[in-house]
Design goal:
This protein folds into two domains: 3-54, no CATH class; 63-225, E3 ubiquitin-protein ligase SopA (Pectate Lyase C-like). It contains four helices and two strands, in the order H-H-E-E-H-H. The protein has helices at 3-15, 22-33, 67-73, 77-86, and strands at residues 36-42, 48-54. Strand 1 and strand 2 form a beta hairpin. It starts with a helix and ends in a 139-residue tail after the last helix. 37% of the residues are buried. Residues 1-20 and 24-61 have low confidence and may be disordered.
Length: 225
Amino acid sequence: MCHWERCRRESCHELHPMSLDPSIEKKQHSQRATKYQRYFNVGRSGAGIDHCIYSSNSKPTRSMANQEHLDILKQGVTVWNAWREENLDVRPDLSRAKLSGAQLQQANLNEANLTGAHLQQANLKGANLTRAKLNRAYLNRAYLTEAKLNGANLTRANLNGANLTRAKLIDADLTGANLYKADLTRANFTGADLTRANLSEADLTRANLSEAKLEGANLEGTILQ
């Protein structure tokens, strides 16, 4: 019996524990029924997964990293990159992963989902993060020297104190990103969207800002040479 069917029967059993006066039964049925919520999720295979949650305030769980992908990454960059080469059609899901201080230099994270990932002080030197989803990611003091971030989604990402020296951020979306005191020396921001980004006290020495959008950006104390 599927989860939904079992839950439906259990619900009905509670809603009709005994025979009552029709008017009273109808009122109690209405009151109790509001406590039930059902969420129906359809996976890639098209099979339905039913969940009946006995709470009027329950919410669906927030997206988390694919544990298999995370386990492979934790085996090291060499193993990870080999796996990526063998599985070109897979888009890694590392959303909200705890990777603070991880050694990920030269890692192939092309098009990976790193939404909300914890990458504080991680070493991502030379990593391929092309078109990766890094929105709301925590990259405080991360080492991203020479990283490839072309077309990456970095909206509202925290890059406070991060090192992006010579990083490539062509057409990247950094709307609302926090780049306070970040080292952006020689970084390539061609066509990047830095709308409302916090660039205060950041070092943009010899950075390429051709066609970059800077509307509403905080440039207080920013080094521009």
